[in-house]
Amino acid sequence: MGRHDLSDSEWAVIAPLLPDKPRGVARVDDGRVLSGIFYILRTGAPWRDLPERYGPRTTVYNRYNRWAKAGVWLRIFEALAETSPHALHLIDSSIVRAHQHAAGGKKGARITPSVSPVAD
Hints:
- Helix 2 (30-43) packs across helix 3.
- The protein has four helices and no strands.
- The two termini are 36 Å apart.
- The longest helix has 14 residues, at 30-43.
- It is extended, with a radius of gyration of 19 Å.
- By secondary structure, it is an all-alpha fold.
- The protein has a domain at 8-87.
């Protein structure tokens, strides 16, 4: 099992949320594909660099997109959030593209965080 692969407890939460397999069509193992998707999301590697142990990269990429359109990722996120309520303490909005002239901002300007921690 690789560092980015799903544990058995994670798989037990996620497996029932995945769409049913089409009848009569053999499909690459969902657990292996899901681990491949998480590998790409966690490492930031391009799809073409997906290790072979996760299956064909086009299959992994296509399933990622298909599940996004079907709302599967939202269901998975909500289910995992329910199993670990302390995992969601902060939502960070720091990934915002700056204007092209932002680097020439006023010297010594105070930068304040755009998020505040959630209190219990």
